[in-house]
Write a structure and sequence with these properties.
The chain is α/β, with parallel strands linked by helices. The chain has 13 helices and 16 strands.
Length: about 375
């Protein structure tokens, strides 16, 4: 997947070479404080970035000791953070942010002015933030996770779904309250083609707080239990295909996770998942980009913004295709391609991108001005 005119893999290799050959850009002595909210996916990503930064810089907890502070929070938290931690005003501050529609909410537009630069995970997100901030840079997610699970984990998951070896299992990990995930459309498509797929089952891993009334259908298995990471791994391993007819994703962690487990992935051909998904490594759903419909507006997403509406017909077609051709050579080829392509987002590649990003920041006039403010 290209980033501008270069692939992420090429950028990772190039930045590693540049860093090694440039003695003037040493990060020795640079201290970075990395703060993150409690949202689970944010915390997971932040831990990875923090570990990678620690290979090049000293990671410190105290803001006062840091040269660079990374705020991995939703932008509407920035004002309160700057009020509660006044020393942020004397630091070089990076906001790590994502947004999943064509326009930022008004409160985000104002909030991102607090930070000197923004990091985000995909070119899709970069384009959105660049409309309102002059320094926006792509730092992709690492596609890696511990994929281990025990026999007990596998048995537990199989009991939850009443596993039968002859069945074919589609999987979606979602939040029903998050209309951006478009889970209702998936359940509807599965139901419409259920008669043609009598052995198919759709596993919908939702949250304990989700309400499933009105969505239950024959062959649909809703899981609202809280599962451990190892049990989630066993769920991925049990599934035959992963499906996400989303309206928009900043990245799509569950999609890249499914690729780690060598699963065929069906997903909307739009937004941040295009960073690592293409027609040669996955099954991309046709879609139209349109203003968010009134019935889909929620949280900060409103009808002044656009996202994708995947084709229901194409979703049904691809569910049938993979159900009927699970062992086809073309399916195996795309899965192999996916396993190859996600290596572009290895820890080493993203580590090199992070290192170069911090070097560029430290050697910028913006950083010099921030350091000067901190000395006053």
């Amino acid at each position: 997947m290209s980033v501008g005119r270069k692939t992420v893999e090429a950028i990772g290799q190039e930045t590693a070479q540049n860093a090694a050959s440039s003695a003037t850009l040493s990060l020795n002595g640079v201290k970075v404080s990395y703060g993150c909210g409690r949202y689970l996916s944010h915390a997971r990503v932040a831990r990875t970035y923090r570990d990678l930064i620690g290979k090049h810089c000293e990671v410190v907890k105290e803001i006062d000791r840091a040269d660079i502070v990374v705020l991995h929070f939703e932008p509407h938290s920035f004002a309160a953070l700057f009020e509660n931690y006044p020393s942020l005003k004397r630091k070089y501050v990076v906001g790590y942010c994502v947004w999943e529609a064509s326009e930022l909410p008004a409160m985000y537009k104002g909030a991102i002015r607090y930070v000197q630069e923004i990091w985000t995970c995909s070119q899709y997100c970069c384009e959105i933030f660049r409309k309102h901030h002059p320094q926006v840079h792509c730092v992709p997610h690492v596609i890696a996770r511990d994929t281990n699970y025990s026999d007990a984990d596998l048995e537990f998951v199989r009991q939850l779904i009443s596993y039968e070896p002859a069945n074919f299992y589609f999987l979606a990990i979602t939040k029903l309250w998050d209309l951006r995930k478009n889970t209702k459309a998936l359940v509807t498509a599965f139901h419409r083609r259920r008669a043609a797929m009598p052995k198919a089952r759709l596993i919908v891993k939702a949250g304990p707080e989700d309400v499933i009334e009105g969505l239950t259908n024959e062959g649909v298995i809703f899981l609202r239990e809280s599962l451990s990471e190892a049990q989630i791994n066993a769920l991925y391993a049990t599934a035959d295909v992963y499906v996400s007819p989303h309206h928009s994703e900043g990245w799509g962690l569950t999609l890249s996770d499914a690729m780690l487990f060598k699963k065929p992935v069906i997903a909307t051909g739009y937004s941040g998942n295009r960073e690592f998904m293409n027609s040669e490594n996955s099954w991309l759903l046709d879609c139209t980009v349109d203003y968010i419909k009134p019935e889909d507006c929620f949280y900060l997403f409103d009808s002044s913004m656009k996202w994708a509406y995947p084709s229901a017909e194409d979703l049904e077609k691809k569910l049938l295709l993979l159900n009927e051709n699970r062992h086809a050579l073309e399916v195996q080829r795309k899965v192999r391609n996916a396993s190859r392509d996600i290596q572009k987002f290895s820890p080493d590649s993203v580590s090199a991108i992070l290192k170069q990003r911090i070097m560029d920041s430290v050697n910028s006039e913006r950083f010099s001005h921030a350091v000067a403010r901190g000395r006053r």
